Amino acid sequence: MKTLRVPEATVTRLSIYSRFLERLDKNGVTTVSSGEIAEGVGVSPAQVRKDLAYFGEFGTRGVGYNVKDLLKYTLKILGLDQPWSLAIFGAGNLGFALCTYRGFNIRSFHIAGVFDNDPTRIGKKIGNLEVQPLDKFPEIVKSENIRIGVIAVPVSAAQEVADLMVKNGLEAILNFAPVALNVPDHIEIRNVDLSVKLEILTFNLGFRAAQNL
Amino acid sequence: MKTLRVPEATVTRLSIYSRFLERLDKNGVTTVSSGEIAEGVGVSPAQVRKDLAYFGEFGTRGVGYNVKDLLKYTLKILGLDQPWSLAIFGAGNLGFALCTYRGFNIRSFHIAGVFDNDPTRIGKKIGNLEVQPLDKFPEIVKSENIRIGVIAVPVSAAQEVADLMVKNGLEAILNFAPVALNVPDHIEIRNVDLSVKLEILTFNLGFRAAQNL
């Protein structure tokens, strides 16, 4: 499988740049420099230029970037020029929180189903979604064209849910369960650690206190 | 305020290295090379060496690193050679999920209080914690030596909660509300976007499909 070697940090920043460009575009701004993007999102101008350089030549020296063009291009790079339907597995506290989290229903993303195997949860409404039993998954995957699965079940059930997603043709998995899952190579999978930024906080506080080690 | 200019990506990896070193130490491994660390966590050996070089000279050429020493040192760098008590604000679905999330109760971290202003939630038990009203916060901050606040309230209440944290002397804030908060410069604050990795998935899938733009 041929994949472009772009650092994930670059992709993450590209996502942030595209949100900034959306805001500029909404405000009627037509041209932007790498310096303005840098200031708008809090990185260095050199970083912006380096990140964009992964994807070809953009902008005109001394003039900057056309906002609409660059926005359209960044969205295309991010794969957001097409719709993505998601399914959330697990209608416990985390699943509920994710169902109403705006980040999963913006841009090209759309939560198309929420599933659980707990009879006390099945049929419950979360916004305009109704919690479905797992055996409805194969049918809803097809009718809603679900391509991404989100795992918000306990560790003990996470692998089983991942297997079900793979079996039903999902292409990507976002895993909130704190466990490493086995999936075939053709499945894109990323784990979300809710606590990972805690140690960035303590690192910074520690350094302030110590000044040096 | 003097702070060391270390990229957050480096700090994040340092946190990952230290977890790997903990595992090695538990398994009785005493020496490790940068190549072994690299393979264990999925980055390049050059990246490991570059990351560690921010903090001084480690290891012996041809011999590698002493696991216990490097672990101790990375924990110290991360500020984890001291205890950190957390308070979680918001006992809704997300707050509940965070209270039981193991990442907030490992290593040096300990959830010492959960707060909400909703009378239907106050007094409820989450594990061995009882949801407290906001006006108990000043007293519990002191008795539990709480230093980090976690915001899991709706956007509309997030700034007010941040102000309360600052007023009561917290040093750092982890913010799950999708809104930018104003806090004084001496407060360390980081936002957690639960959906940010979605676009890494679609980026990778898009590139596979297109092979090139």
TrEMBL record, chains A, B:
GO-annotated biological processes: negative regulation of DNA-templated transcription; response to redox state
Pfam families in alphabetical order: CoA_binding, Put_DNA-bind_N
Keywords linked to the UniProt accession: Cytoplasm, DNA-binding, NAD, Repressor, Transcription, Transcription regulation
SMART domains: CoA_binding
Location in or out of the cell: Cytoplasm
DNA-binding residue intervals: 16-55
GO MF assignments: DNA binding; DNA-binding transcription factor activity
Tagged with keyword Nucleotidyltransferase: no
Role of this protein: Modulates transcription in response to changes in cellular NADH/NAD(+) redox state.
Membership in a protein family: Belongs to the transcriptional regulatory Rex family.
UniProt cross-references to NCBIfam families, sorted A to Z: PRK05472.1-3 (NF003989), PRK05472.2-1 (NF003992), PRK05472.2-2 (NF003993), PRK05472.2-3 (NF003994), PRK05472.2-4 (NF003995), PRK05472.2-5 (NF003996)
Name listed for the protein in its UniProt record: Redox-sensing transcriptional repressor Rex
Species per Swiss-Prot/TrEMBL record: Desulfoscipio geothermicus DSM 3669
Record lineage: Bacteria, Bacillati, Bacillota, Clostridia, Eubacteriales
